[in-house]
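For concreteness, we quote verbatim a single protein encoded this way:
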Amino acid sequence: MIENKDPVTLKIILIGDSGVGKSSFMNRYVNHRFTNMYRATIGTDFFSKTVNLGGDTVTLQIWDTAGTERFQSLGTPLYRGAHCCLLVFDVTSKASFCALEGWRKEFLVQGEPQDPSDFPFIVLGNKTDLSGREVSRRKAMQWCEEIGAQYFEGSAKEDRDVEKPFVRAAHSGLQQYKKHTLENTGHFQITCKQPRESRNTCEC
């Protein structure tokens, strides 16, 4: 058996409301940097990082998306081909947590993963360093259990538990890669039967 020594490239997407810290978390993980100067992402940002997962050399292409409506049209080409999706919210903002269900459904519609029921989502609660928390760990984990996602939380500012969600995303993405890319499963059309919902709807 001849093993493929070429690095595997995995596409990881970060989505969520504007201002929750997607760029900060990604920049902290890749470049080990943090800035207090807020700059809204214009369209998308892209970083790359190579890691080793149990003998597999994996290059992570990490895409940070703008959490604003005017860049919504970018979602379709950007989401497609993703191997894992991180849903990011601010633990001090209940509204940003409630918006995640809308983001998740939008990803499934626009990203068209081969197996929507098996696609890996990771939920990430940022800004645990701040006071005035509005979303408890218990509430976040309860929702994650309902949708079959794993939950992590941390602080980009204090560099607290930043690496864990990305490592988990890499492992989950690699499983997706091996399942759908290495196996010749053929091409077929996925139709999402769930109606598209507004991200302004909060069922918290």
